Amino acid sequence: MLRQKRIILGVCGSIAAYKAALLTRLLVKAEAEVQVILTASASAFITPLTLSTLSKKPVLSEFTKQNGTGEWHNHVELGLWADALVIAPVSANTLAKLANGFCDNLLSAVYLSARCPVFLAPAMDLDMYAHPAVTANRQKLKSYGNTLLEAGYGELASGLVGLGRMAEPEEIIDVLQQHFRLADSRFA
What is the reported pTM? Predict the structure, then answer.
């Protein structure tokens, strides 16, 4: 179901960013074309080299290419190119940006330009996840038509136990496959 699908994988700053490596690998194994976009804080948790190696494409993080020519990564083209935008993990900070239309980095600009379905997999500590502001942002993003893969229950990086764990990569793959299966059956 993911064969030849164009997937943008956004990765935000969270300890759960390590799961992006497995998610990228599973998407590529399913024969999807994967373009990874890292937020600035994500690269503190996982390296662009890891994700570039797994996706077989350069990882994007800035609006402009770092070659000194002034070339840019066109967020509009990226938003139109994708069959799906998956942001996993999505931090509380990025949830707030997306819910309120803030656009200060490449990933949020691609989100605002995307015409494809958007899948969000939050990851944060349990008190952050349960905070009324974060809850309101999750609800707002759902009301925009985004698919939210709610955080799971378990041990968190803080040592606390509760809701906040990012959905497992296999679960995200299952949700994407189900989405494309339904979408493809409508056109059959």
Answer: 0.94
